[in-house]
Write a structure and sequence with these properties.
alpha/beta; binds ligand PBG; eight-stranded parallel β-barrel; TIM Barrel; single chain
Length: about 325
């Protein structure tokens, strides 16, 4: 019995069959210039500490962080995001160490900027590394996280960091109105060249666990952050948050976490056409590393695929703990 020949009009595989055709038709690429490397800074000299839930990530003293900054610069990574790990004795209910112009993060900013002037520095604005209860803001007697009182402190925190020389202030606290208030504070101190990257759509996510281990806030945290961080069920609300931050003066916006929120990145990019960042957060990184350590997945390959997916979703840049390794791979 003879088979009837099929006439197949469309053969999409033609574009996939050679490496060169795939290169030719590729829509999105990941480059070293897309990467921001988050780093945890500790006090001391020559100090490094591993973080069990973040394999391969080391907290480092300022001198060690300067070495990392040089490596990053030499590979073409445009910016670092700095997070201080504060001595437990300095953590208070009001997190006032955040506004000390001589605190760890301000010293780190000034020293890294002096040693490596040509890499961008981003600093978080939120109180959680500094509070004894692990929340991003002030807490009242009922457990409510106070908004406007917190915003006042965040403005002072942003001011000392900007005066220390940080290039980009990144409010990650999710209080209402903080972007506008911080912009006013910076401008009224002639800091008009300091940018704001707003954590605009930051969800109350279970993916931040390893980060809280890294800054040692997790064990202290009473309750959760659901009264200020966004409900993972919402998508329209992310667009309203982003619209407000842009109106209040954000230069760049961020969606966080990354991988479970690719739909949000796409909606934000389509709607606002502003510089849009994805945070490939600690839990996403930890999952990849854990599966790789078990031999279940190829860790390097899945991280590359994840980061490319952020670009495909519309992100201009990505904060990732894998930035250095990825930059080395991309430069080869
Ligand atoms: C603090 C902050 C968090 C992260 C960045 N800034 C944690 C949180 O909100 O509890 C998470 C980053 C990560 O998980 O990699 N406001």
């Amino acid at each position: 019995m003879s088979t009837t020949p099929h006439i197949i009009t469309h053969r999409p595989r033609r574009n996939r069959v050679n490496a060169w055709t795939r290169n030719l038709v590729r829509e999105h690429t990941l480059s070293t210039h897309d990467l921001v490397w988050p780093l945890f800074v500790i006090d001391g000299k020559g100090e490094e500490e591993s973080i069990p839930s973040m394999p391969g990530v080391l907290r480092g003293s300022i001198d060690k962080t300067i070495e990392k900054a040089k490596q990053a610069r030499d590979l073409g990574i445009p910016a670092l995001a700095l997070f201080p790990v504060i001595d437990k004795g300095l953590k208070t209910p009001d997190g006032k160490e955040a506004t000390n112009p001589d605190n760890l993060i301000c010293r780190a900013i000034a020293e890294i900027k002096a040693a490596v002037p040509d890499i961008g520095l981003i600093a978080d604005v939120a109180l959680d590394p500094f509070t004894s209860h692990g929340h991003d803001g002030l807490v009242d007697d009922t457990g409510y996280i106070l908004n406007d009182e917190t915003v006042d402190i965040l403005c002072q925190q942003a001011l000392v960091q900007a005066q220390a020389g940080v290039d980009i202030i990144a409010p990650s606290d999710m209080m209402d109105g903080r972007v506008g208030a911080i912009r006013d504070t910076l401008d009224s101190h002639s800091l008009t060249r300091t940018s704001i990257m707003a954590y605009s759509a930051k969800y109350a996510s279970a993916f931040y666990g390893p980060f809280r281990d890294a800054v040692q806030s997790g064990g202290l945290l009473k309750g959760d952050k659901k009264t200020y961080q966004m409900d993972p069920a919402n998508s329209d609300e992310a667009l309203r948050e982003v619209a407000l931050d842009i109106e209040e003066g954000a230069d760049m916006v961020m969606v966080k976490p990354g991988l479970p929120y690719l739909d949000i990145i796409r909606r934000v990019k389509d709607e606002f056409c502003v510089p849009t960042f994805a945070y490939h957060v600690s839990g996403e990184y930890a999952m990849a590393k854990a599966a790789a350590a078990n031999g279940w997945l190829d860790g390097d390959a899945i991280i590359m695929e994840m980061l490319l997916s952020f670009k495909r979703a519309g992100a201009d840049g990505i904060l990732t703990y894998a930035a250095l390794d990825v930059a080395k791979t991309l430069n080869n």
